[in-house]
Amino acid sequence: VLTSYSANLSTAITKCMASEDRNLRGSKIE
Length: 30
Prior knowledge:
single chain, 30 residues, mainly alpha, 1 helix
């Protein structure tokens, strides 16, 4: 249970960082 929670957490963090990275790139282009 702990490992699957950790995997889900790291996946959520990765998705969050990816979306923030896209937002930063978008603002740099504009």
